[in-house]
Amino acid sequence: MTNPDPLLEEYFQWLTIEKGRSRATVEAYRRDLRALKYWMKEHNIELTVLSEEDLERYFNEARRAPRAPSTVARAVASARGWLAYLVDEGYLVVDPSARLKGGRRGRTLPKPLAETEIVALLDSIRSTSSVDLRDRALLELLYGTGARVSEVVGVELSDLDFDEELILLTGKGAKQRLVPIGATLNRALRAYLEPRGRAALLGSKRSTRVFLNVRGGTLTRQGIDLVIHKRALTVGIERARISAHVFRHSCATHMLAHGADIRVVQELLGHASIATTQLYTAVSVTTLQREYHDAHPRAHD
Q1: Candidate list 74, 136, 231, 245, residue with the active-site label
Q2: Going edge to edge, which strands form the sheet with 160-161?
Q3: Has 248 been annotated as catalytic?
C-alpha cells in the first residue's frame, strides 16, 4: 500500500470541509488524481515541473484508452481543481492546467457573503463567556485579514504585535507575511486575551497558540469549521454558503468593492500570482452589475 500524498490528502480535506463536497464526489476526485500522480511517477515528472503539454499528453492517452468522454471531462476537472488549489495555497506559482483543452470547466467565482450578513454574524456574538470571546476574535480575524484557516490555526501569541498593530501569518512552505490588525479585530483580540477569555479555556495546560478549544488544546481546522457553522445558524446563514474560505473571499471582495488596490489585496491574502486575486475583481464587477440592474431606473426596457 502506497503512502498517502500529503498535498492530495489536504486537498480532499479542503473539498470535504471547506467546499462541502459529498463523499462520492471526493472519492471520484481521489481516483482521478491518484491516477494522474501514478502516471507522473511512471514518467518521472515532478509536480513542480508539470506542464500544460504533460497534461495534454496524459488526457490524450486517456481518450485513446478508450474512456468515456464524461469520465475524461471529470478527470480534467479534477486536475484543474487540484492544481488551482495548489496555486491558491502557494504550493505552485503557475497553474499548468489554466489553458487545458478538452473537458474544460471554468473556475468557479468566489461567492462572498454580503457585508450586511458579515456584520449581522459578527455582531450576533454578544456574550462575554470564554467561548464567545474566542469565537468573536476568531471570526473577526478570518474576515479582517483574509487569512487561510491553516494560518489561523498556527497563530502564536508571539505573532501578535499590538504596538505595531500587525499579525505575523505563516502560510504554505513556511512563507510569512505581516497583516494589519484593524480596530474591530484589535478590540476582539484584546478582549479574548483577557483572563476571562483564553486563560479560562487554557486552565492549567500550557500552549502558545492563540486559538484554543474548550479543553485547552489547539483549535483545529475542523473545530473552526464547527464554530463557523454554529454561529452562522443563529443568524440564518445556510451551512452550504459559509466556511472559513468564504470569509477570505468576502474580505477580498469587499475591499476591492471599496476601492482597494488589487496588489494590496494580493499582498494581504498571500497570493503568489495576481491572477488569483483578479478573480475577486470579477466578483466585484458581477455584484456591481447586479445592483445596477436592480436599482437603476433605466437599466431595463
Answers
A1: 245
A2: 160-161, 166-170, 176-180
A3: yes
